Sequence to fold (844 residues):
Amino acid sequence: MSKNLKELLNERILVLDGAMGSLIQQKGPEEADYRGSKLKEHEVKLKGNHELLNINCPDLIFDVHSSYLKAGADIITTNSFNANALSQKDYKTQDLCYMMNYEAAKIAKKAAVEHSSVDKQRFVAGCVGPTSKSLSMSQFSSSEKDEKFTYDILVSTYREQISGLLDGGADILLIETIFDTLNAKAAIYASENVFKEKKKRIPVMISATIAGEAGRLLSGQTIPAFYHSIQHANPLVVGLNCSFGASKLQPFVQQLVDEASCFVSFHPNAGIPEHDGSYSQSPKQMAKDIEKVLKKTGVNIFGGCCGTTPEHVEAYSELSLKYKPVKRSNKKNYTVLAGLEHIKIDNSNGDMVYIGEKTNVAGSKKFAKLIEQKDYQTALSIAQKQLDDGAQLLDICMDKADINSKDAIKDFLIDFNAHPQLAKLPVMIDSSDFETVREAMKYIQGKPIINSISLKNGEKDFLNKAEEIKKFGGAVVVMLFDEKGQADTTDRRKEIITRSYRLLTEEAGFSEENIIFDPNVMALAADVNNSVNQAVSFLDACKYIKSNFPKCNITGGVSNISFAFKGAGVARKAINHVFLQAAKDAGVRLPIVNPLDVKTNNLPDNVIELANSLVFNNDEKVVDKLLELNNSNITANDSGSKTSWRDQNLKSRLKHSLINGIDDYLKVDIEEATKKYDDPYDVIESLLMPAMDQVSSKYDKGDLFLPQVIRSATVFQKAVDCLHPHINSQSNSGKNKTKGKVVIATVEGDVHDIGKNIASIVFKCNGFEVIDLGVMVPAEKIVKTAIDNNAGFVGLSGLITPSLNEMENVAKLMQEKELNIPLLVGGATTSEKHTKKHIAKNYN
Ligand code: THG
Fold:
């Protein structure tokens, strides 16, 4: 009974055939042989276009295969190294590529079948060369860019070639002589498409060539980085070929044997070419050199490349029987990422790998400005600074209204890839727009992290994105959202973790090491109720991941935790510091941080203690205490000493109370105010609103931070409550000040509601009846509620970039339903310009 290739590879070392070109030359085909009957009139000289012989002179190719089979080769490679449209263009024979490949596989298969027996099975490897172009290099050269050589073009080129080989009957797909891993990744992407389309999968063998004795590919990658960048192809065999002679390749074969989980192959040149182009090493010499590698390192397949002949293969065949194949074991128990070099995230020790947060237009004003100005070089210096500060990879995010994130990420990555230090690093691509993610992946030679996907839009969308990321070879961050919204309790977190894990491993074929969970770092003390259990719930979810899915990794945006303390220097640093430590203990290995926060030490003990209480939620009064700590500065700058402010006039006193969140004197001050003003609404308008305006501008300047703003809003509400008896007593006085109903909501797909809740308080205090629909609210519901309640206006809130589109949808629906009331939009990514250009034009 015949064995499959994998079984055979476990039993013995297999031998691959030798060079094709030199044997063809020996047989001396002439121009007429290349032309055959169909290309007699072809305008270009065709001699030397060996792949044409598959169509026009198949017997000659058959003979070459036969001589290698007779010499003992277990695997023969098809005559298709250059049978791709890019290389064939030189001969104007690009239209014949499919045929060349199809025939190449057919001829080889016929020869292999003829020489196969029960004791000696033979296999056909469908050979895919690197093409004449390099995707990585063409990014930098304007002349190649002019010809519009792109990832997509290369994918369709490979797709045609691989289809021909598969249809012709190849047993193995051999992607070889790789000098640029990005080309190989395009070939892998194409092969996945072909396998799926034809519902037929064959084992994949991938082989790189080294450019110099430093052991890097021409495009700059080290051998381990290369391996990890193509591991998503799940290759049966990975290897090295061509390059220089056998002995000098040994250390790099060793690197592959050490790094890879799959079988390892090795088919070197017969030494280094002489000046006349011939190769020097005799079969005996080469066998001797290869034997040293077999002894020292061991392989599973070896054979010949340029300059080798059937005589070489005969010697190899004998040699292969003397040694056992090198034993393989599954080494995949850690996440590995790669740029030109690789990084291992070893779960067995506690070391964290820091992801720099500053290359994010949504998280750094400075970076955003540079990207808006397309000043990528200066933007790169921020990336470099992150590196110098201790980051080992970078979170790159271009999501912002008025930035074309797809173009920006491409242009940024091209410059990033050209940077001598930065190009070594893996990247994390952070975007909520999947088209931006896809574009970025076309410019990444290494193995990136894609940040992120979630079940927000259901399973189908989740799996489609996961499968696409897998075809590009990325690891993936899973955010804990589902159709119901963002997980904000431990149970919801666990539920979504388990569901995402199952879908990714069982349906999308993701390996566990490539799954990175983000249990949602949410800002502490950022809502009116000061609900501060979010850190504890995050940490519990981490522990759940560690005990149930130990091979998966964990990330999280550490600085999110202290968003509410924006501007509060020491307090914010302390909170980040404490949370990072706790996250480390809970199993987070890939935190997104400001690397300077990591280094922070000598923070005052009392601040650290408060930060601890906040993170672990064990002191109800901790927010107040943290505020007090920070307030002392503001109070001092603002209005002299703490006691003297009571001596100031009424307006200043109320202002002081609101800005500093003090409610002790509201009763007396409001009482005094109602004596001064006949209409209680004038108190709001003349005394309280100006104070709130100041709160707002202080917040913008960074003098106040979020919990303080929330406190101010709460004091505002209390002041209005003090006014209530007066408002009610006046309600019969003829002047009806009820301003009507308003409908506000955070739009569908978004869960952020801090600003919305504050706005809601302000509206209520100003006499509106607020119908707050909460978060993740579909457009239909918002519009229907507005109609049913005869609302005075609609307010929409959202923080993330996709919410801008959703606001557009609501505007369109309001137009459709012929509403005629104002629409208010607000949130971190909204802007005047975007609103004018994209939202306002949809609604009259
Ligand atoms: N999970 C995942 N990805 C993420 C996050 C997450 N990406 C983005 C974010 N959260 C992590 N990155 C940042 C970046 C910056 C800040 C916070 C988180 C930040 N910036 C200062 C500020 O806004 O106060 C910067 C001010 C400035 O320099 O202009 O806090 O959770 N998967």
User: Anything to note?
Assistant: The radius of gyration is 34 Å. The pocket of (6S)-5,6,7,8-tetrahydrofolate is lined by residues 357, 360, 363-366, 395, 430, 451-452, 477, 518, 521, 555-557, 559-560, 566, 592 (CB under 6 Å). The first strand starts at residue 14 and ends at 15. Residues 225 and 341 are 5 Å apart (CA to CA).
